[in-house]
Amino acid sequence: MSTDNTISPFMLEVMKSAFETVADELAIIIMRTACSSIVRDAIDYSTAICDRNGLTLAQGATTPLHLGSFHDAMSNLIAREAGNIREGDVFVFNDPYLAGGQHLPDIYVIKPIFIDGEIEGWSTTVAHQNDVGGIVPGSNSIGSTEIFQEGLRLPILKLFDAGVSNVSVWKIIAANVRVPDIVTGDIKAQVAACHVGEREFRKLFARLGAEKFRQCCDAIHDYAERLTRSEIARVPDGVYRFRNHIDGIGTDPQPIPFCVSLAVSGDEVEVDWTGTSPEVRAGINAPVPFTRAAVYAAIRSVLSQDIPNAQGFTRPIRVIAPEGTIVNPRSPAACGARGITGFRMIDCLMGALAQAVPDKVGADGSGGATIPAIGGIHNGAPYVFVETMMGANGGTAGSDGQDGVAHVGANQSNIPVEVIETGYPLRIERYGYVADTGGPGRNRGGLAIERVFRFLGDEALLTIRSDKRRFRPFGLFGGGEGSGSLNVINPDTVDETLLPVLLTQPYRLKRGDVYKHVLASGGGYGDPLERDPEAVLADVVLERVSVEAALRDFGVVIVSRDSRPAVDPAATAAARSRAEAAA
Questions:
Q1: What is the per-residue pLDDT for 5?
Q2: Within the chain, which residues score under 70 in pLDDT?
Q3: 506 neighbors 462 (Cβ within 8 angstroms)
Q4: What does the alpha-carbon distance between residue 275 and residue 243 come to, in Å, rounded to a whole number?
Q5: Contact 522, 363 (CB under 8 A)
């Protein structure tokens, strides 16, 4: 830790905010110029400004699960390209084993920032591309058994070499993806953002000069570390353990366990994944940069929002991820759909954190993004629809779980119905909340969301990455589980087919087929018999909870008075007494 005290608190705050503003500007540029709905509308990308050593100074307000990923990527780039980095270079890569990436759909575009002949910073972006080739449209294949099946592998390459476009690299990318115009368009959006990051970084540098600017960068890391250590020191020392699962893969799913040990000692934390499942022969293994990012995102979510999202935040946190496990696979293990593993790591760690800081952690939620991907040929041209659908949070100490929100690991958005229907041969026949699904508790879990697609094309392949059907979202401190997820083809017909949560073989859609997806809901927090009867009544009025579920789950009797629902206090007291006696 630096001992330099020449940066005043006022200057530190100004520079922290300035770097955050630049990182956010990069994010806005990508949002406004990207071509794909997965980037532009779902916001599955991240931006960051790094210092001369490649350490993150600020991250754009997009995907928290990318929070820790830039450090591994930058460390790898700087080490491998030492002596080969020139002004005007723009680097591109995605491979987790060759380049420190996360999975092949996440393509990094990174530009060094030279001032007076020296690297003073880095403008960095990473975006989930609509498709990078491989055996299924959208490149999120659960059935892959090695990375070679998952699509285009990019080691660290120069997209621009000293300002000159590397046409060969652009041609290789375009030749290996199903929708080249969209993919190259998104990469160009990332390049544009990097250029703007360089411009704004130079302005800040010019205001302060080299020495003061570098001191500010170091001070931001030290400040983030000090604040983080201060908050960790307030957590009771101890070892907190939790176990969670992914339901399993394919038609005969076997539970995939996650075991975490959270050891708090003074102002430091050790997160140990020993005991977690070995790597699997499927596309859900999480490379270790993603594992670290998941840990940082979970811990960051229970700390003060005033802590800068700078690399110094990670200094008091040690991550142990045994090699050969699903959280640190060995090459060439498949990892295209590794997002589900990252979300499950966060959920598992939240279960441990709930023991350490119960007032700061809510019950389990829907489990992060579900990814349905539908691709084929329509009107003579290939298309790929990919969506990161988000659902609900669990109840907390102070409130009900939120409905229709992103997982803490992914500040992403569901794609609007209009965008889907105008861009793809799909019609959305239902999109909304499902009543009686929120886990019962003193504070109820958020409701499940369902989306029903009707396929209007001739033929397409459907792949699905979802979870939490068997191992449903857990409640906390007496709260009940949330409801589980569903994937159904042609519901309520003689052809109704229930699909697995993690589909290893694509399902072939035909014209008129209906795909119904229901996300898991949120778990409850606290004893449901302690829920305010008026809150239950409000849920009944809003059709979030049925009259039957009000009695079954909360012991609240709802009657009709003057044609309006009302609570029967005496009957409710009796019902709750019977429920407590039976417990």
A1: 55
A2: 1-5
A3: yes
A4: 9
A5: yes
Beta strands at 45-51 and 238-246: parallel, antiparallel or unpaired: unpaired
Please give the order of strands across the beta sheet that includes 486-489.
426-434, 448-455, 514-518, 486-489, 497-498
Place of tokens 């409130």: 399
Is the sign of the CA dihedral 477, 478, 479, 484 positive or negative?
A: positive
Q: What is the pLDDT of residue 3?
A: 44
Q: What is the pLDDT of residue 64?
A: 85
pLDDT at site 2 = 44
For residue 425 the two structure tokens come to 């041969």
Count Cβ atoms below 10 Å from residue 404 Cβ, excluding itself: 17
Could you tell me if 326 and 256 are in contact, meaning their C-beta atoms sit under 8 angstroms apart? yes
Span 192-215, pLDDT tens digits: 999 999 999 999 999 999 999 999
Using CA of residue 6, residue 12, residue 16, residue 22, what is the dihedral sign?
negative
Q: How far is CA 238 from CA 219, 267, 268, 534, in A?
A: 31, 12, 11, 39
Residue 169, burial from CB neighbour count under 10 angstroms (0-12, 13-18, 19+): middle
User: Could you tell me whether strands 317-320 and 268-272 are parallel, antiparallel, or unpaired per DSSP bridges?
Assistant: parallel
**What is the model's pLDDT at position 306?**
86
* Residue in this structure with the two tokens 């709802």, named with its chain if needed: 558
Position of tokens 């006022």? 10
Q: How far is the C-alpha of 34 from the C-alpha of 29, rounded, in Å?
A: 8
Residue 556 DSSP one-character state: -
